[in-house]
Amino acid sequence: MSSNHRKRMIGLMLVFFVCLGSLSTPFQSFASFPEELRLFTGQQAHLQLAMPVSAQVTVNDPEILKVNGSTKHSFQVDLHHPISLESYKAGQAEMKLKLFGKIPLKTVKVSVVPDLKVIPGGQTIGVKLKSAGVLIVGHHLVAIAEDKKISPGEDAKVQLGDLIVKINGKPLKEISKVAELTAEAGNNKKPLTLTLKRNNELIDVQIHPAYDIVDKAYRLGLYIRDSAAGVGTLTFYAPDQGVYGALGHVITDMDTQTPIAVGSGEIVHSNVTSISKSQNGEPGEKRAQFSKESKILGNIEKNTPFGIFGKMEELPDHGLTKEALPVAFAEEVKEGSAQIYTVVNGQKVEKFDIEVVHVAKQDFPATKGMVIKITDSRLLEKTGGIVQGMSGSPIIQNGKVIGAVTHVFVNDPTSGYGCFIEWMLQDAGIMLRNAKQELKAG
């Protein structure tokens, strides 16, 4: 056997044994052993290395984190058995494992945050939202002569999605003031100065009202809107903090598709009257009614990529449960069975089975956290899958609130996206900022 052939055979054998070792339980356990871990106070976790050896474990603060129930700073553990962790109070702790008390094996940084529980919703709600200014949703032509039309707004470079926050330096709070100020400026032959919010920047533009010979009034050549209304689903109510979260996605203007900046708003009880079933290529919808006399549940203070949020003073009616449930961090969500709470008739919240078929790894807030599939035959029969108005329906897995329904797949309405509850709680202002960022900063 030649020297080169012998070396090739040895190399192949080494590759074989490395591959074989990588498939072994100890190797896989070692590779999946976390470097960072987040726990709520009072929460337990189990870590597995599956190695037939002992190691020295050192905990810098056993008052925050206890390992295998011990309050000691340093002691021996058998790595063949799972290592149990239990958090006792909020703070940062670090656990180090060393073979033979000298060789560094693993270090785990643990962030413990205060325990948090919320009451899952599922109620259908009516949403009444007023923007923080007047939104530009289109341009139109003003007939200034029989053979001539112009758009003052377009000439002034006013863009769709711009928000008028001031006119002539004064805050604009009522949409009716626009016509009044336009008429005044036109009669005085003076331009209006509009302060526009565009891409989070304020800019001033001058616009000259034009006299419409058909309407016999001064016009700006702009289509405007300052409010929106619709239906959705309440995700959670946090009684200790007196806040709620709903929808699971941002509210955008129907014409410009830009997020609506919140000026004020409220959510009210709503009643599902019928459902248009989803079909491939055509999402269905909940048809619901709410009136000015509907009971106000809370105000609207934020409109973010993860839904709407505001104050709520008491537990809403018609809920499936009054019991607060623990919430899950994003990394706790697993593929497998789960349930959603939602309404398909009247105001009755019901529980339906779903499957979490994919979980995205997210260290930072992002909207598409998981892919879900409706598996409950009752819900499929009634709705055909996910329908408009179901957004915000809370997702429950293993007794924890893990997220909310957000979007339907148009070509497969039995499936859709969900967002993690962690990001909704963060936008609601009741969860500590991303604990992973804290760990890295520390």
Tell me the distance between the termini.
58 Å
Low-confidence stretches: 15-25, 434-442
- The total beta strand count reads 33
Main beta sheet: strand number and arrangement?
Answer: 13 strands, antiparallel
Structural class: mainly beta
Mean pLDDT: 88
- Tell me the strand percentage band: over 45%
Helix content, binned percent: 10-25%
Shape: elongated
Q: Helical segment tally?
A: 7
Radius of gyration: 29 Å
Concise overview:
By secondary structure, this protein is mainly beta.
Outline the structure in words:
By secondary structure, the chain is mostly beta strands. Helix content is 15%, strand content 46%. It contains 7 helices and 33 strands. It has helices at 3-22, 25-32, 152-155, 176-187, 377-383, 421-428, 435-441, and strands at residues 36-40, 44-47, 54-59, 65-67, 74-78, 83-87, 91-99, 103-113, 117-120, 124-139, 142-145, 148-150, 163-167, 170-171, 192-198, 201-207, 210-212, 217-219, 222-238, 243-247, 262-269, 271-276, 285-289, 296-299, 302-304, 307-311, 325-326, 336-343, 349-359, 370-374, 394-397, 400-409, 412-420. Strands 9, 10, 13, 14, 15, 16, 19, 20, 21, 24, 25, 26 and 27 form a 13-stranded antiparallel sheet that branches. A hairpin with a 2-residue loop joins strand 32 (400-409) and strand 33. The longest helix has 20 residues, at 3-22. Residues 15-25 and 434-442 have low confidence and may be disordered.
